[in-house]
Amino acid sequence: MKKNKMKYGVIVLLVALLTTGCGNKIPELSEQEQELVVEYAREVVLKHDKNYQSRLVDLSLEQENVNEAEPETPSEEEDEASSDAKETDGQEVSVTDNTQTEVQNVTLEEFLKLDDVKFTYNGYELDNFYPQQGEELYFIMEATQGSKLLVLKFLAENTSGTEINLDIAKTETRFKIIADGVGKNALTTMLLNDLTYYQGTIAPGENVELVLVCEIPEEQTEISTLELTIKSVDDSATISLN
C-alpha cells in the first residue's frame, strides 16, 4: 500500500513537471519529493532493463563453470616421468655399460692375458708415507689430511725360462680397491712399481713387487675384507684378496 502511494505521488510530480510547458523554469521540489522521484526512476530502469538480470546470471554461470571445471589430466609423458621419479626416489641408480662383460673366477694374469707371469697377492700396509725407505726414493706419496694410504702389494713372477718385458700400461687396465665394502679407485702415481703403469724387464724365475694405492679414513686401523675390481675396454672382473 505504501509503495502504491509512493508511485502515485511520483506520477503526480511527473505530471506537474510535464504540464509546466516549454519554459526554462524548473519547478522547485522538496527534499522528500526529490527522493521519491529518484527511487521511482531507479525501479523503472531496473524493471525494464532486461540486460541487468541477464548479466548477473551470466556472471553466476561463469563462476559455476570455473568451480566445476575438472582438473587437467596429466599427459602420458608426465605420468611416465612421475612413475620413474617414484621408482628412483631415495634409491641409487646404477648405469651398466653394456659393452663390458663381467668375468667370473679369473686370476689377475688371466684377465691381463699374460702367459708367462704369475701374480701373487702379498698383503697390505697402512702408511702416512709410501715408500717408507729405499735405496733411491724417486717419488714419495703422502696421505692427505684425515686419511692414510692403503697399499696393496703384489709379486709378479716370471714363470718362463727367458727374460720377459712386462708392459701393463699398454693394456689400459683400471683398478678399484674395495675395502670393507667401500670402493676407492687406485690412485695415479709416479711410483716406478705402480701396477697400473708398470713397464719393466723380469729375468727368468725372478719377481718384482708391484703396488696399488688408495686412501682410506685415518681412523680405520685394520681391514676385514679386500676385493679388487679390474676393468679393461671390453671386460671387468672382481677378485677377492682374502
UniProtKB/TrEMBL annotation:
Segments of skewed composition (Acidic residues): 65-82
Bias kind Polar residues: ranges: 91-100
Alphabetized UniProt keyword annotations:
Signal
Keyword Signal found: yes
Region span, Disordered: 59-100
Return the InterPro entries for the record.
Immunoprotect_excell_Ig-like (IPR029050)
Protein name, as recorded: DUF4352 domain-containing protein
Source organism per UniProt: Parablautia intestinalis
Recite the lineage of the species.
Bacteria, Bacillati, Bacillota, Clostridia, Lachnospirales
